Amino acid sequence: MKKIGLFFGSFNPIHIGHLILANYILENTDMDELWFVVSPQNPFKEKKSLLKDHNRLDMVQLAVKNYPKMRASNIEFSLPIPSYTIDTLSYLKEKHPDYNFALIMGEDNLKSLSKWKNAETMIENYQIIVYPRLTSGLPENAPVHPNISLIKAPIIELSATEIRNMLKDGKNVRPMLPPEVFEYLDGSNFYR
């Protein structure tokens, strides 16, 4: 059975921190593939800094094209909004019954996991791979379950917000982005 790690995010834009983490997970766990699940814009939330869904998906596709075990997923674009992780997981399981899906999240998300829709169901039925964050460390009340595993991935605290602000200020962000994503943004007015 193929094991797929799901890395959810707005990827606004995807940066090398995302790729380093994804590659670490592929090389150090039993995942066969890692899918970047691009979250759609919530129509009820006005986010001027959020690029259109298809632009963010394009950037992820460009970023992963040289990594055969990574792919971009627009699965949530066709699901009801707001998208709840458990609904996306159920939909994927139905669509790919022969795949095993695992959830990839930062320690910061694990802290609030109990507040997520159907959190217990998610913890019982899916492997959850948790990567460290600089600002985190796990609180005493973090859920503990055989399905939840912490990995010692390198901590790369690159922030998409910071990258957007630097772009707006005309600063060089080339080292922070996959080259294809830098080229994509370089000729555009995105984030400026």
TrEMBL record:
Pathway, per record: Cofactor biosynthesis; NAD(+) biosynthesis; deamido-NAD(+) from nicotinate D-ribonucleotide: step 1/1
> Its Enzyme Commission number?
2.7.7.18
Q: Which terms does the record give in the GO molecular function aspect?
A: nucleotidyltransferase activity
Looking up InterPro entries in the UniProt record yields: Cyt_trans-like, NadD/NMNAT, Rossmann-like_a/b/a_fold
Enzyme class name: transferase
Swiss-Prot/TrEMBL keywords: ATP-binding, NAD, Nucleotide-binding, Nucleotidyltransferase, Pyridine nucleotide biosynthesis, Transferase
Give the top-rank taxon of the lineage listed in the UniProt record for this protein: Bacteria
Cytidyltransferase-like domain residues: 6-165
Q: Can you state which reaction this protein catalyses?
A: nicotinate beta-D-ribonucleotide + ATP + H(+) = deamido-NAD(+) + diphosphate
The cross-references to PANTHER family, in alphabetical order and at most eight, read: NICOTINATE-NUCLEOTIDE ADENYLYLTRANSFERASE-RELATED, PHOSPHOPANTETHEINE ADENYLYLTRANSFERASE
Family affiliation: Belongs to the NadD family.
Q: What is this protein called?
A: Probable nicotinate-nucleotide adenylyltransferase
Q: Which gene encodes it?
A: nadD
